[in-house]
Amino acid sequence: MNKKILFSFAIATLLFSCKSATDSATTASINEVGVTIDLNKIVDDKVLVTVKSPTITSSEIVYQLPKIIPGTYSEDDYGKFVDDLKAYDKKGNLLKVEKKDVNSWTISDAQKLDKVTYLVNDTFDIEKSGGMGGGDVFSPAGTNIDEGKNFMLNNHGFVGYFTDKKDLTYKVTVLHPETLFGATSLIDSDASATSDVFITSRYNELVDNPIMYSKPDYTSFTVDGMEILFSVYSPSGKHSAKALSGSLEKTMRAQKKFLGPINDNKKYTVLLYLSDMKKKDAKGFGALEHNTSTTVVFPEMMPSSALGEQIKDVVSHEFFHIVTPLSVHSNEIHYFDFNTPKMSKHLWMYEGVTEYFANLFQVNQGLIDEEDFYARMTEKIRNAKRMNDKMPFTKMSANVLEKPYKDQYLNVYEKGALIAMCVDITIREKSNGERGILDLMQKLSNEFGSKKPFSDEQLFDRIVALTYPEVGAFLTTYVDGETPINYEEYFAKMGVSNSIIKKPGNPFLNKSTPCISGIPATKEIVIRANTELTPFLTNMGLKADDVIKSINGKEYNIDGISEMMESVQSWKEGDVITMKIKRNDKEQTLSGKAIIPMNESKGYNLSDTSKKNLNQAWLKG
Prior knowledge:
Elements (H helix, E strand, L loop, with lengths): L20 H5 L6 E12 L2 E7 L7 E5 L17 E8 L4 E2 L1 E5 L2 E5 L4 E8 L23 E3 L3 E4 L7 E2 L6 E7 L5 E3 L11 E6 L2 H5 L3 E4 L3 E6 L2 E8 L7 H19 L7 E9 L10 E4 L3 E7 L4 H16 L11 H4 L12 H18 L5 H16 L7 H6 L16 H16 L6 H11 L11 H8 L2 H11 L7 H7 L2 E9 L4 E2 L2 E2 L1 E4 L4 E4 L7 H6 L6 E5 L2 E2 L5 H7 L8 E8 L2 E8 L4 E9 L5 H9 L1
Parallel strand pairs: 1-12, 17-18, 18-20
Antiparallel strand pairs: 1-2, 2-8, 3-7, 3-11, 4-5, 4-8, 6-7, 9-10, 10-15, 12-14, 13-15, 16-17, 19-20, 21-30, 22-23, 24-25, 25-26, 26-27, 26-28, 28-29
Helix pairs in contact: 3-4, 4-6, 6-7, 6-9, 9-12, 9-13, 11-12
C-alpha cells in the first residue's frame, strides 16, 4: 500500500435477455463458486450479491468476508457492510444462519445449501478520514455504490468465501447498465453489453483484481509488450484519462526500462477514482497495489498538473510491487488468511525495496538528478530517526497489527527504503559495481515467482547465497537486530558526503517566499504587495498588484498557477522572456532576460571522485 498507491475490455452488442441474478448463479459447477453482483437493482444504496455454493458435504459451513486484505495492514472488517444474509436450499427454502462474528456466518444443514444472498453497503459515503485515522477503510481498498454513475468493486468488499473453499474457481457475473464500462485486468468472457463474466482460479485472485464501472473514459498504450489501461472516473468531467495519461505513460515506460526482464506481465490497469469533496465521498487519498493493477483515489478539485504529478508518484511505488510482494513473497502472503492473518517478517522488502525502487528508477532513467535522489534519501533518514530506530524491523513487521508495532508502520517507507539502499550499496561495492539489489530481486523472482512462496526463516539465507556474506551480516545486525544504521558510512562507500549544494531556484520565489498570489474572485495571478521581488521580476519592470496575463504567449490564471510555477523551472539564465500584464486596468507587454537565483543548502553529493565509476554504476547501472 502507498502511504501517502488496471486491461483488455470488450463491450459486445448482443441483446441482454432473461438473465436474472438467480439464473446466472445457477451456472456454478460443483468445483466452482458462482457469484452474481447485480448493479442494476440498487436497494437503499445497496447492491445485491448472490453466491452459488459448491458441493458441501459437512453439516455446517461458515461464509466469511475478510477482516483484512493484503497490502493494507489494518483490520477493516468488511463483513460489517453486509446486510440481510440468507441461505437457501435448492427448493428455495431458507436454511438456518447464525452470525458468528462481524465477518462470519454459520450455515446449518450445509449439505443442502444451494445459494447465499445478501446486500452490500459501500464504504466511500460513510468515510470521515479515509483510513488515515478514525477507523475508516483506506479508500483505495474501499467500495463505492453510486447508482448509474460509478461502482468501485474492490471484490473483497462484495464477495466472501466458504471455509476451506478459497482455492476453488470463482465465476463472477456482473450485471450492469449498458452505459457503464467495467475497467479491470480480468478478461470478460461474456459477449453481452449488459453483463460481464470473470473467472479466477481462486478467491485470492479475485481479491487481487478490482473492477471499476463508470461511463467509459479510458486510454491505453503498450509499453515493451505490456498493455496499460488507464481508466478515470471524474464526477464533474473536470479530468479525463487522455489529459492525465502523459506523465503516467512517460513514467511507466521508464519503470519498464529500469526493470528489464524482471517483469513479464502482459496487462496492467490503473483505476483512478476522483472524489467529489462537496458531498459524502472517499477521503483516503493514495493507492493500493495489485498484481496487475492499481487503484488510486484523489480529490477531483486538484489542478491537472498537480494531479498528474501525484498519480505519477503513487503509481511509481505501486507498480514496483509487481516485484515484491507480488512476485517474491513468503507463505504468509501467498496463503493469506483474510480473517486470522499471520504477518510476514519482511516488510523491509515488500514496502522498503518497492519504495527504494520508486526513487532509484527516477535517477536511473534521468527523471531526477543525482542531488534530488540524495535529498530524497536524506529526507528519509530524518523521518526514520523520528521513529523507533532500535525496533527490529523483522519484529515490527511480524507484529504490525498490534501496538506498539503498528505505530511504527510508516517507517517501512522511510527506514525500509534506506535498508534497501544499504543492501544495494553493499552488493555494488562487493561486485565492483556489476550488480545491485535489482539483480538480487531478479534472481529471487526467478527462484520463487508469484506461485512459489518462500519460508520467512529462509529468506536471509537465500539472499546470502545469491550475494555476499556482508549482505547477510547487514541484515542480521540492522534488520533483525536493534542497531541503528550509520548511513554516512554507506554513502561514503559510493563517494558521497555532506556538503553545500547550489541549485537553481525559481525566479518567482524570493528564497522560499512567493512573489505572486492568486485572487479567487477574479482568478487573476498578481504580484504581491509588501514583498521583496526577485532580481528577475525587478529587471522585468514588474510592480506590486500587476496582473500576469501570459508568459511567452501562454495564458495563465489561478487554475494554472502550479503549471506556471513548474514551467519556469525549465528556464535557463539569459533566456528571453516576454510577459503580458495588466497594470491599472491597462494591458502592456514586458520583455527581459531570465535571471535564475542560485539557492544554497546542505546536502549530499559526489565528493570522492575516485569512486565516480562505482557511484555511477549504483545510480545509472
